[in-house]
Amino acid sequence: MGRIIGVCNQKGGTGKTTTAINVSSFLGIGNKKTLLIDMDPQGNATSGVGVDSEGKNSIYEVLMKNVSLEESIYSTQWPQLSIIPSNISLTGGEIELVNTDGRELRLKEELSEIKNEFDYIIIDAPPSLGLLTVNVLGAADSLIIPIQCEYYALEGVSKLAHTIELIKDRLNAYLEIEGVLLTMADFRTRLTLQVVEEVRRFFKEKTFNTIIPRNVKLAEAPSFGKPIHFYDAACVGSKAYLSLTEEVMKERISTETAKVLDKGDQDPLVLAQKVSMEAGE
Fold this sequence. Notes:
The protein is α/β, with parallel strands linked by helices. It has helices at 16-29, 44-48, 59-63, 90-97, 106-111, 131-139, 157-170, 190-203, 216-220, 228-231, 236-249, 256-259, 268-280; strands at residues 3-7, 34-38, 74-75, 81-84, 120-124, 142-148, 176-185, 207-213. The chain has an eight-stranded mixed sheet, sandwiched between helices. The relative contact order is 0.18.
């Protein structure tokens, strides 16, 4: 049975979408059939994997029951990675759902139909605690909570923790915290070290060992529509997200297959041929 992992933090700028994109990508590289669901109306996870949502069914149409979830799944050019895209129409969707029966569990209801078809389903939640995020919390088995290494690192996290407890009581008794992820760390500063210590003291064993450093390549990659491994596999950001994904999977990932994927290739058939040729050598 597939695992559904939400990436949530109501505070913006924590590396939430970057985490969703790159964990999904490395899961695919690790030969896990993965579905990335973009639940943020900004659609950054969609464009971040090189998908144009124009003319495509989106998560909005799924939540409104205008189309089936299966009709909204699109392949990406990256190994084993599919996506349900998002666009700005999802902003109105939150309002439209308000007077709908079972509105908090609409996403869970839809995912129940296809959960077993994937090893992992990663959901990028919006930076808020509105109805869309409640749907993510209601559908997920566990949560990755990114926290930026800054002065107000824990601001709002207590509110999110309270919301998680309410969701467990009323909607999803099995929801767990997969882990708290420290992001945008700059180890040249004393502040980063203080935040790391504070977060690990607060969340204890729920804090991931991996810490994501502040890295310009991580910031650049989405503008090229590429997960970090396919933009710059050698950068520290790529190595950090590989380590994080191995923590999530609890197994090692071989990136040998991914090395034969040319950054310039956009055709999935070309990528598949290259992988097959490499495997046959």
